[in-house]
Amino acid sequence: MDLTPFFAGDEFAVDAVLAGAAVRGIFDGAYVSAGAGLGMSCTVPAFTLPTVGVSASVVGSALVIGTVSYFVAEHQPDGTGVSVLLLELSA
Is 70 exceeded by the pLDDT of residue 89? Predict the structure, then answer.
């Protein structure tokens, strides 16, 4: 399956560096609320890309988008050739 149209740079995709390798994917820094009335919220940054560009040992690797560095906290392949990397901001 050709996933190229989904990750075209002229739409939503951005260039990044994952564990030293150039990759292209969709970055999402989504805001998440912990629930009504609790007064807690956070962001859950994620990077979606073709699974072919993700090594089996990607958890703990660095992902750099522009000038911002993250590390991969979790890898969620969806079984269709697409993976979501859940990220944490590097200190």
Answer: yes
